[in-house]
Amino acid sequence: MPDNTLRAHDEVFWRTFADRYDSHPGPVNLENGYFGRMSRTVVDEYQRNIELINNSNSVYVRQRFEQSDNLDIRAQLAELIGVRAQSVAFTANASAGLQSLIRNYNRLQPGDQVLISDLEYDTVKGAMRWLARHRGVEVIEIDHAHPATFDSLVATYREAFIRHPKLKLMALTHVTHRTGLVMPVQAIATQAKAHGIDVILDGAHALGQIEFDLEALGIAFAGYNLHKWIGSPLTLGFLYIAPQRLADIDPDMGEMHYPVNDIRSRTPYSTPNIPALMTLPLVFEEHRALGGAAAKGARLNYLRNLWVKAVRNLPGIEVMTPDDPRLYCGITSMRFTRHDDQQLMVERLLSDYNLFTVVRTGAACGPCIRITPGLTTMADDMQCLVRALNELR
């Protein structure tokens, strides 16, 4: 077995790893998809940076951060994901980056069509519908068949592309926040390109738990979070634009603080969370030292499979996410088929078993309970979940 697979099973290692994080007493957190945790050393570094900026104020920021340090940090980010520094710009989160890409995409004409699915994030759906109101385009909405397969997902998009020849732009989510389904991005993007359709990729949940190559995926536009699986402070994300496609995204509302050929003009100019940005070099160092997305993804998948394999075939339980390794990651959803109110069951998991989970709605397949282990989650926690699901079903 690869080293990452072996380590994924090593509870002694991961218990030692979990000791690097502080936490308050409380329920077992199986809702790690909202945002991730900072290690103790990252928290300490963040606090030092807050004090530095508070004490030095604009002297450091004007003289060093804006002139050089922020460029060095951006270069480190670009290296982390294997792209050129000129192709990334920091944002407050993935949603902010995706909204900038959608509202500033300039290749649409009245009468064109844009595409969303039931599994897109609501902010992305709202931004695409905004295009309909302000650009005169038509929004095409599709639902994905459940249960999904690799071929069914690709076929659904291919059929939509054929049915709607005026499609010019589509949203695509790499890891869907509702069910944890991992989309076959490369196959879908290849089909989209063949029909002249640009893809804006929502990578909010992908970065840090899935290895990917944006160029190989065929993606020119994307938005990401750094505070989910990378381990940064909150308020950090970035957008990506392939350098050869920069002209297809306008400067944000006439942004003039940066030249038109600088990707940073594609986001609103404002005072960012400078202490958080200054913390990123340590965050990247810890991410790489652990083994990056390969190591994190292997561990999260292992924890996911511990509970999924135990309950997949139990009456009264439906696991919403398929077991095709191409289509899942650590995030997976389920529902109690004998209980209509999934929120009530989330409350039972918390009150009766001390397990914190969350309901997700909006998918065509219906409401579900999202279960997301984290890097400090232990195998024993998943066994508690298995017992709870078995008793509550």
TrEMBL record:
Domain Aminotransferase class V: 68-368
Gene3D superfamilies for the chain: Aspartate Aminotransferase, domain 1, Type I PLP-dependent aspartate aminotransferase-like (Major domain)
Keywords: Aminotransferase, Pyridoxal phosphate, Transferase
Keyword Transferase set for record: yes
GO molecular function: transaminase activity
Organism superkingdom: Bacteria
Pfam families named in the record: Aminotran_5
Protein name: Aminotransferase class V-fold PLP-dependent enzyme
